[in-house]
Each structure stands twice: as structure tokens, then as C-alpha cells.
Amino acid sequence: MKFSLLGIFSASAMLLVGCLETTVDREAEAQELMQPSRDWSAMVGAGDLEASIDLWADDAVMLPPELPVLSGKPAIREYVLGAANVPGFKISWEPDTAHISQSGDVTYLIERNVIELDGLERGTSSD
Hints:
CATH topology: Nuclear Transport Factor 2, Chain: A
Oligomer: single chain
Number of domains: 1
Shape: globular
Helix content: 40-55%
């Protein structure tokens, strides 16, 4: 009988531990989340556009300022390569803040974008 009670106690303890809410180090997660965005911006700044386009999912959606929604990698590739051919066009971004849910299963970034056209600078923010 002792063995059965021990088994029940162990199973109950594992169930309770499994149900405890996990703690997420949100500051560390935020830094880890922002670094790939910084790397992506540097990749674009270095002119490696094809590699940067490959980072988008095949079904990605882009919301360029003052333009219709772009759906899918082919539409995004056309936009990015077209923008790169505009004389003086440059874009860069820096993550401003990372928002992470308490459980760590939902995250998003707020970023500051800078777009330059022939020396004119236009800052935007996105999320």
C-alpha cells in the first residue's frame, strides 16, 4: 500500500509542478528578440537585399507607408528591389521596445524606421 500512495503523491506533485505558471525573464527575452531585427537592418544597409528578402515568410504581409498592403514574398521582393533602385534610397531601423507577455508566448517590437531619399530623411515608427 505504501508504494501506491507514493505513486499517487508523485503523480500529484508532477501535475502541480506542470501547472505552475512559468516565469519569463522579459528583459533578457526583449534583448534576444531585438538583436535579429538589428542584424536584419545591418544586412539591408550593406546592400544584401536578396538575403534580407529571404527572411520574410512566404505568406508575409508588408504595410508600406501610403501604399496598399503587400501580400506574399513575391510582392515584397518587387517592392524592396524597386525601392532599392530609387536614387539615394536608404532605409534603416532600430528596435525601440520589445513587448513580451507574462507567459512569453506573445511578443512584438516597436521600431523606429529611417528612410532617406536623396539626402531627405523621414522617420517613421512601426510595430
